[in-house]
Amino acid sequence: MKIIVVENYEQLSNEAAKIIINQLQKKPNSVMGLATGATPMGMYEALRKAYANGEVSFKDVTTFNLDEYCGIDPNHPQSYHYYMQQNLFNHIDVKPENVHLPSATSDWNSAAKSYNDLLKQTKIDLQVLGIGSNGHIGFNEPGTSFEQETFVVELAEKTRLDNQRFFNSLEEVPRFAITMGIKNIMQAKQILLLISGKNKAKTAKRLLEGKVGTDFPASVLHLHKSVTIILDEDAYGLAK
Ligand code: GLP
Fold first, then answer.
1. Average pLDDT along the chain
2. What is the mean pLDDT of residues 41-53?
3. pLDDT of residue 100
4. Which candidate in 41, 46, 102, 109 could, as Cys together with 68 as Cys, close a disulfide (CB 3.0–4.6 Å)?
5. Does any ligand 1 atom lie closer than 6 A to the CB of residue 35?
6. Domain residues for 233?
7. Would you state the pLDDT for residue 166?
8. Whole-prediction pTM value?
9. Nearest to 180 by CA among 118, 95, 93
10. Can you give the CATH number for the domain in which 137 is found?
11. CB of 159 closer than 6 A to ligand 1?
């Protein structure tokens, strides 16, 4: 596990974007695993700038997002479809047919299965991850088996409370999501995990302690051979 500690969120975002740009320069037809949430927003901003400056192209890139809420329309401002369009896809030259997110508008279980089938036919070169305060990756909540593949998950109360900030009320936060499973995530060739802010300091400490267990899903990353974690000082504070 490679740990990079940077001063602040801006540096974390630039460092993460640099790793992605290097990957795409080395392999222009990379398959990228992408994440949502507040943490990678700065990284997407840096990627948009790099694209606008001609430093990188996404024209041969394929993307697979980690997860999507169930039961909200792709045009809903809090859907991950919408997030990805706004933060990245609308601004770059990725081909729409090369972009993949779970489709969770109806028949969630068969949508999860189709997404899993798609994932089985590919190999993700670089998977970007954030982390939930309870240690979730994607939406794999504590207790999820490390053998779990893409599935419909009932979100933990803690996750719904954490994500309430993006909605008008807790009631509006979806109760279910489709997420890549831990097994899918672990099949990526390389993983890049971003952790930012004081509110993630306890989570980062728990992760960096190194104890592996399903009670803390991100701990599975200790079993992967190519993981880079970028933390800012605020997130790293308690782990020193
Ligand atoms: C969300 C997403 C995760 C994300 C995590 C942290 O619920 N499903 O993919 O990594 O929670 O989000 P944030 O970066 O907003 O703290």
1. 97
2. 98
3. 98
4. 102
5. yes
6. 2-148+172-201+208-214+221-239
7. 93
8. 0.97
9. 118
10. 3.40.50.1360
11. yes
Instruction: Please determine, for residue 140, whether its predicted confidence score (pLDDT) is greater than 90.
Output: yes
The predicted structure's pLDDT at residue 220: 98
Q: Which of 67, 77, 84 lies closest to 153, judged by CA?
A: 67
Q: Which residue puts its alpha carbon closest to atom 11 of ligand 1? A: 132
CA of residue 41 to ligand 1 center, whole Å: 11
Ligand 1 nearest atom to the CA of residue 163, by list position:
7
Place of tokens 């782990």: 239
Average pLDDT rounded to a whole number, residues 11-38: 98
- Cα 12 to Cα 8, 41, 46, 53, 140: the distances in Å are 6, 11, 10, 20, 24
Chain position carrying tokens 């997110």 = 101
CA distance 67 to 178: 6
Taking 90 as the threshold, does the pLDDT of residue 105 lie above it? Answer: no
Comparing CA positions, the residue from 120, 180, 171, 183 lying closest to residue 147 is 183
The pair of structure tokens assigned to 223 is: 């079993």
- Fill in the DSSP letter of residue 35: -
Q: Is 67 in the pocket of ligand 1 (CB under 6 A)?
A: yes
Which residue shows structure tokens 């999501």? 177
| E-assigned strand segments in the chain | 2-6, 31-34, 62-65, 67-69, 99-100, 126-129, 151-154, 176-179, 190-195, 227-232
